[in-house]
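Entry: GDSL esterase/lipase
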Amino acid sequence: MLLLLLLMNDKVALGQDGDPVGSTQGGGGREMVPALFIFGDSLIDNGNNNNLPTFAKANYYPYAELLGLPLIPAYSEASGAQVLHGVNYASAAAGRHHRKKLRCIPFDQQIRNFQNTLDQVTDNLGASDVSNAIARCIFFVGMGSNDYLNNYLMPNYNTKNQYNAQQYADLLVSEYSRQLTTLYNLGARKFVLAGLGRMGCIPRILAQYQMDRCSEEVNQLVMPFNANVKTMINNLNANLPGARFTFIDIARMFEDLLTNYRSYGFSVIDRVCCGIGRNGGQITCLPFQTPCANREQYVFWDAFHPTEAVNIMFGRKAFYGDQSVVYPMNIQQLASL
């Protein structure tokens, strides 16, 4: 997860469960923000889909070897003092432009779930204390891939006939701005938004389009979305008093990685570590399937998702990087404000 490095460097708690703000624990660093609230899709879902009638689940143990801190709990499992460290609302297959046939928790419902958490914490701690703490928390949103993979790029689905690439990006980002403003109105002030990656390079697309290299058609399709999100961030930073929005340029990170993968220690960029069919991308990793033995050399874990090694690398860049990959400030700078 991109959040991995955030958590390594950050003791996340509202400071109300016995750990005073500024204490050190686990990661060895000082507490930088009171809590971390997470919204998104399968890239960061840690269990919210487990009880839904869907194959889109993230019900395996998360990578945790590097975390000397309590893991942020899934909303579906969080209760009591657990929520004081933050909550993960992400849901595999979720998007902004929700398809009713998909059994997942779309972004609007994730926001409503956060409001439920907020009401619960406010009842216990008081409105003034919670409001001050929430304004210092980080809100991470990683979402958008499924609006293309499970909608625009679906064979025989009508969206592509209704909108061209720019029109569809305009629609998505208009909804996105509304949703983020809702979070702002609930008290959020520090936002980290992950852009879309080089979607034309994921094994699922390579298998679907029967290609041996990235589909530039798909990569070009999602470029207007990232451009619109950057513009939206500038507008929200200018128009919402006290708001700080940061954008992680995943596409630029992936472009650098795929160009210079050997210098980063990877050897396989076009096949998955765990999957079935062409490039391993036709059917994603199944329960009890034996993965590759040398997963640290693979860029992609399965048909859609990068490996732990890639997530750690991207996490470090998001936390410490310059404006070429995280704009207008990195996560460390955002947390220190």
